[in-house]
Each structure stands twice: as structure tokens, then as C-alpha cells.
């Protein structure tokens, strides 16, 4: 047998009565539901975990159902991180059952109840879209840090250091959002989107928010709702409405056509990332890039001042 340097060192340590070298533990196998959770977990975990998200770009978490391969990944994972707050409505029963056998943590519930927005249609439930505000997302990052630390206590110093760096980045992102959105003229601070995913955004930045569908994309958008929003657009002189990457644009286009029939021109101000991040591997495919894109797109479309390439100069160039 050919001895490697590692074997020699281990044998020497044993001969001298010193403890033998131990291999580093394998990275934690972490499975998350959404991309936002996965991106945050990767930043905090560093090399201590391999993190996989079940839901990729353009996937609607409200209607997502786990596949057989998803179930296999979830049941093998060392740690499962899901959002909770009824975001993953079709997976909730399965995840609660899984929690009896594996470590399953609803990280969205790290946001204190006093800071949550109550669901308008379901008593005791809340709007799950807390990632829209970086200051709220810090509570989620804290819950992720705790869960990783419980799963790998020896790596807590690294998790804590990474979480501190992330907190600074989220503080900077939050300042950019507040300062940039404050440049939108007050009369123009009306955000019309495909579904009601921007309630926390509106509360934090002083925007009136109107979604065609409700908090969940499972809710139906009736003709009466579209008529009401056309009335709002015309009466308030709204010049831009927004599509979402996880929702079909047909209802938004119905608004545009309805306003045109009333003699009012309104355009699509851009595509927002509401329930999923941008393309994998892109800046917009990170949590920071997702929020930077949304803030920059909204501000520029509604008359505010924002650099075309966003906070870090990394956003994809706007289409001409």
C-alpha cells in the first residue's frame, strides 16, 4: 500500500500519543422550497452546506406541488427550510408530516407577528411576502442562521460571521430602496401588479398597492375587479402597470386594453420578481439582485430617479 502524506502524519501523531487527523464532516444536505431561502442559506452556510431549492425561476410557490423526486430529496435532507405563513399552500400538509421525522423549519415565521400583515380573507393567517422588504428579511436570515447552527454546532462561528456580513448587505439594500423610492412623486406612488404580493413593500415605502388577484395566485380575478382597476388607472392618471415573472400577463393586458378604450394610455412598466427570483446564475437570480431589480424598475417606471443598472451596477440593461 502506498502511504500518502496524510497517512504519514496520522501515523506519526498516533505514535506520539497525539490525536489522529480527522476528516472534515461532509457538508449538510439542505433542501429549501423557494430560491430566496436557498440564496440566503448559501450565503450564511458557506462551505458547510450544499443547498438546493425545489422552486426555480418563474415557479409560483402558491400552486407548487412536490414531485416524487422532490419528496425523495426532502426525506433525505439533513435540514429542510420552508417559508411557511401559508406560502407553500399545496405542500403544507406534507411538510408538517415530514417534520415528525426530519428537521423542518418554517423560516418565514421568524418575522415577529406584530410586523406581519394579516390575511384579508383568512383569520389567523398572514401575508407571506415578507421578502419584499430587506429589513423584514433579516428576521428570516436570523431563523436560517439558528437552524444551521442547530444542525452543525461546530460551524456556528462561521455561520455567525457570514450572517453579520449579510446583515450589513441587507442594511445597504434597504437604504437604497428607501432613498430611491422616495424620489417617486407622491401622486405617482400607485403600484398595480398581477397579484397582491407587494403589501409589505407598499407599507414600507408609502405606495398604494393594487393587485388584480389576491395574496395567493390561487384566487380568481373577476371582471368586476378588472373594471375597478381600470377605473383607478384612469381616475389617477396611472401611466405604468407591472407584470410578474410567476404570473401570466393576460390580466395586466386586459387592464391596458380597458384603459385604452377609455382614452387613457398605460404601459407595462416592467416585469417584477414577486414570488421567485430571476434566472439562475444571474445577478437578478440572487436575493439582493431580485430586490434591486424591483426597486429600480418601479422607481424608473413611475417617475423616480434610479440608476439604470441599479444599486451595484449589475442589473441587466433595460430593453429598448
Structural summary, described in words:
By secondary structure, the protein is an alpha/beta fold. Helix content is 41%, strand content 12%. Strand 3 (79-82), helix 4 (92-98) and strand 4 (104-106) form a beta-alpha-beta unit. Helix 6 (156-181) runs parallel beside helix 10 (287-301) and helix 8 (223-236) crosses helix 9. Residues 1-18 have low confidence and may be disordered.
Secondary structure layout:
Blueprint: H1 5-15, E1 28-32, H2 35-45, E2 49-53, H3 68-76, E3 79-82, H4 92-98, E4 104-106, H5 134-151, H6 156-181, E5 190-195, H7 199-205, E6 208-213, H8 223-236, E7 240-244, H9 250-261, E8 267-272, H10 287-301
Parallel strand pairs: 1-2, 1-3, 3-4, 5-6, 7-8
Helix pairs in contact: 2-5, 2-6, 5-6, 6-10, 8-9
CATH-derived architecture of the largest domain: 3-Layer(aba) Sandwich
> What's the mean pLDDT score?
91
Gross geometry: globular
From the helix content, strand content and strand pairing, which structural class follows?
alpha/beta
Task: Write a compact overview of the structure shown.
By secondary structure, the chain is α/β, with parallel strands linked by helices. It has helices spanning 5-15, 35-45, 68-76, 92-98, 134-151, 156-181, 199-205, 223-236, 250-261, 287-301; strands spanning 28-32, 49-53, 79-82, 104-106, 190-195, 208-213, 240-244, 267-272.
